[in-house]
Specification:
By secondary structure, this protein is of the alpha/beta class. The protein folds into two domains: 156 residues, Rossmann fold (3-Layer(aba) Sandwich), CATH 3.40.50.1400; 128 residues, Rossmann fold, CATH 3.40.50.1400. Helix content is 43%, strand content 13%. It is globular and about 60 Å long. The model has no long low-confidence stretch (mean pLDDT 95).
């Protein structure tokens, strides 16, 4: 069932990232503002960006996703202009909202580039949107999380199969961003990840797989989800074949190309582990089509598709959904 509202735009909301060396520290200061992260940790993360001359791939990947989605909507409808606003770097969400108001947009749907529920992956984006809309007549309604939507799962199956073709007997390792355990305990993050991994592995007839985590930040005194991908690879030991599937990420951005393609591969090379890394969904046609499906749920009452046991997620988040702690 549609929500009975008429929408005149789609807003893509993402994390953002630097495009030049001089952007790196201001960007990280935005990301870490209000968080108890040691300065040495910020400097260490900055080095990851400097390794690629300060440019993260995430912005170009968002541009590619927008272009693919514009083609999808132009060919199949609904015809909606697409805007793009980030949490942490330009184009910043408040600036995008101002542009939408200037263009006469009154009501938009928001697609957030995060498939799973958690404070940082869902609620914080909703808060960012609400803050950007203060004193505005513009309405923005977020599309639901989609970790078990057929378009996401089938795209990940295809990406994982491509990697398994290189190492057919490999041990399957799924990775996602680690978050504080306090965040995990107040959200469906781990259960949703486990379900998505189960669905992908099941389609590939891989009964043996493991979910691990990567890219943790924050105070070393605060417990975060484990095991870390590097620690798990060291447990596996020499002689193994592994396929690493970054199921918790939608594009091959910095935390994929550095934490997996650089750091994890160095561990594998040192230990004599053969490694293949599956691509993220990126602009896979099934994933792009999925975004259209989510739009049509709200605009035309299209079927609310979901695989597995959990069913489709809610459109309107409850007040107590994914609190900070």
């Amino acid at each position: 069932m549609s929500d009975g509202l008429v929408y005149d735009a789609l807003l893509l909301v993402s994390f953002g990232g630097p495009e030049r060396r001089e952007d790196v520290i201001p960007f990280l200061e935005n990301v870490l503002r209000g968080r108890n992260v040691p300065p040495e940790r910020m400097r260490a993360v900055a080095e990851h960006y400097y390794h690629f001359d300060g440019k993260t791939p995430i912005n170009d990947q968002n541009r590619a996703l927008i272009a693919a989605l514009e083609r999808e909507l132009a060919e199949r409808g609904p015809r909606l202009p697409i805007y793009w606003g980030n949490r942490n770097w330009h184009p910043l969400l408040p600036d995008t909202v101002q542009q939408m108001k200037a263009d006469g947009i009154t009501r938009a749907l928001a697609f957030v580039t995060s498939a799973f529920s958690s404070y940082s992956g869902c609620r914080q984006y909703r808060e960012n949107i609400e803050q950007a809309l203060i004193a505005s007549s513009l309405t923005v309604n977020k599309l639901r999380v989609f970790y078990n939507h057929p378009g996401f799962v089938e795209a990940m199956v295809d990406r994982t199969r491509e990697a398994l073709d290189k190492l057919p007997e490999a041990h399957l390792i799924f990775t996602a961003h680690s978050i504080p355990i306090s965040f995990a305990n107040t959200s469906g993050y781990v259960a949703q990840l486990q379900e998505a991994c189960r669905l992908v592995a099941g389609e590939l007839s891989c009964p043996s797989w493991r979910l691990v985590y990567q890219s943790r930040s924050g105070s070393p005194m605060q417990p975060w989800l484990e095991p870390d991908i590097g620690d798990y690879l060291k447990e596996i030991g020499p002689g193994a074949d592994v396929v690493i599937v970054p199921i918790g990420f939608l594009s091959d951005h910095m935390e994929v190309i550095y934490d997996l393609d650089t750091e994890a591969r160095q561990i594998c090379d040192r230990l004599g582990i053969r490694m293949a890394r599956a691509a993220t969904v990126g602009i896979h046609p099934k994933f792009v089509s999925m975004i259209r499906d989510l739009i049509l749920e709200r605009t035309e009452g299209a079927p609310r598709l979901a695989l597995g046991d959990h069913g489709p997620s809610h459109d309107e988040c409850p007040a107590d959904c994914c609190p900070r702690s």
